[in-house]
Amino acid sequence: MRRVSEPTTADNGTRTWTKTTDRPLRSARKSLGIWLFARVVGMPVPWAATRQTDAVALLAFEHQRLRELAAAGEHVPAVLAFDGHALTTSDIGTTLDYLLFQRAPEERLPLMSAAAADLARFHARGHWHGGAQARNITWDGARFARLDFEERLVPGLPLAMVQRYDVLQLVLSLARLIEPLGPTAVYEVLRAYAAVDAAQGEALRGFIARLLPRLLRISRMAAWSKRLDTSRELMRLRTVLAGMQAFVDAR
Predict the structure, then answer these.
(1) Cα separation of 251 and 234, whole Å?
(2) CB 21 within 8 A of CB 3
(3) Domain spans, the chain
(4) pTM exceeds 0.90, yes or no
(5) What is the spatial distance between Cα 225 and Cα 127, in angstroms, rounded to a whole number?
(6) Which residue(s) pair with 15 in the sheet?
(7) What beta strand segments (E) does 23-103 contain?
(8) Distances (CA, A) of 174 to 57, 116, 143, 187
(9) How far apart are CA 204 and CA 191, in angstroms?
(10) Of 14, 62, 63, 240, which has the fewest beta carbons less than 10 angstroms from its beta carbon?
(11) For residue 153, which of 243, 28, 62 has the smallest C-alpha distance?
(12) CA-based angle 63:65:68, to the nearest 5?
């Protein structure tokens, strides 16, 4: 979805964010790309959940999720105002991807692993994110928090499936930051998630084991093109795949 929150800073220095229904929604082309990718990774996301056409309904859905998660004691932006067309929330800190970019490559892994473990605890409490990329996670030095809850994946899909998708979103969003560290770092991030709960860890291994052959086929097909085979994006993907394979093999 292409709606962007706009920041506002009050006289006392307090920062808030407002998301409105006035901005353009996800294009049909981008929707198709997301829909196809989801199927490649074994996520049969309904087209209706991918093709966003009703900005009012999407904003109302996000408002509802924020209220429910806050009531459950989760760290999410506080809803300050909502009138059906504008949603104003509190600021919850600096995003994980920004913080990681400020660190030297060799100093990134502890924070990445901590974020993965925190996501596992979030899942263990029965929740799902739907947009678990590093740009939608914040860290204030003491705790992680989450933002951007406009994806309508549950109840259309099983909770466990969406939780596995959350992990995949997190790992892939870290690919460009994790590549300098190699496949071992990918393995460590996945291991940090799995270490929180043995059952979740086994479910994640099973999901990745089923996913790997599909992604490896894409990697091999890309090798037919010298331009694609040497692209930065494919090199990052292969680093992630090697780390995923190590995680599966460590069962």
Answers:
(1) 26
(2) yes
(3) 6-90, 96-249
(4) yes
(5) 41
(6) 9
(7) 79-82, 86-90
(8) 30, 11, 19, 13
(9) 10
(10) 14
(11) 62
(12) 110
CA-to-CA distance for 194 and 172, rounded, in angstroms? 17
**CA R_g for the chain:** 18
DSSP assignment string, 209-223: HHHHHHHHHHHHHHT
Q: Stretch 95-112: mean pLDDT, rounded? A: 96
**Mean model confidence pLDDT for the chain:** 91
| The predicted structure's pLDDT at residue 140 | 92
Half-sphere exposure of 207 (CA within 13 A, CB side): 21
Count, residues in the chain: 251
Tens digits of per-residue pLDDT, 48-62? Answer: 889 889 999 999 999
The amino acid occupying position 212 is L
Angstrom distance (rounded) from CA 40 to CA 211 = 8
CB 241 within 8 A of CB 215: yes
The residues with which 86 forms a beta bridge, in sequence order, are: 20
The three-state secondary structure class of 197 is coil
Q: Which of 245, 107, 240 lies closest to 168 in space, CA to CA?
A: 240
Q: What is the percent of the chain with per-residue pLDDT over 90, rounded to a whole number?
A: 73
Is 6-90 a CATH 2.60.120 domain?
no
Whole-Å CA distances, 31 to 8, 59, 170, 230:
30, 18, 20, 27
Q: Which two three-digit tokens encode residue 112? A: 């990445």
Tens of pLDDT, residues 169-207: 999 999 999 999 999 999 999 999 999 999 999 999 999
